[in-house]
Specification:
- The protein is of the alpha/beta class and 240 residues long.
- It has one domain (8-134, 164-239): Alpha-Beta Complex (Spore Coat Polysaccharide Biosynthesis Protein SpsA, Chain A), CATH 3.90.550.
- The protein is built from 6 helices and 13 strands.
- The protein starts with 7 loop residues before the first strand and ends with a helix.
Length: 240
Amino acid sequence: MDEGACPVLIMCGGRGRRLGPTTDNLPKPLVKFGNQTVLGHKINCYMAQGFRDFVFCIGYRGDMIRAEVEKNHRAARMQFSDEGVDAGILKRLYSARNLFDQQVIMTYGDTYTDIDLNLLCQAHKDSANEATIVVGPIQNPFGLVEFDSRRKVTSFREKPVLNYYIGYAVINRSAFDLIPAQLIDLPDGEGLVMFYKILMAMDKLGTYLHTGLQVTFNTQQELARAQQQLSHFYTSREDT
């Protein structure tokens, strides 16, 4: 990898309200998984792959994020972008666009995967896309039915395998020139979805399939399951 050519941008600004009291005074990326925060797991994973340049899009309790990474990851090169607590994902991304050159790897701060970032970057660079989003397979537990205006069934798929966006992407800096101004301040993820739809309409949005580990959490129940998943993942690696 050409070190520094493709920094990692980690979205760390959200409030994480669905976790209840857990995030009353703690930003979601600093939730502990074992003796390490989820953000710490992410940074260590990426640095082990040769990545040293990081952009942190902070907001809620951003001072805690900054203190955590500066204390525990001194070998990393860090930049910070702070658009406040209420900024949506697209606003945070757009405001950080001057902190990288050609492309950036964007990843959510509350998601951990074992994805190979070098392969992801190369796949994007080999394409003509302005952005490449990472998708993972998930089996729907139900039979999905489609029907027409006469209520006649037109499709019946029993527990189909679907692909969903897992919160990783490689985005060209030039892609941000294509964003209409009225989209930038849309709340939460609305602006990002509209941005991706614009690139899709231009035939400039690609996908990268990741079938390995993918851990994320939004509620207390999901957090308990995610902590178990990650613990099992590391235990399995130590046993091999």
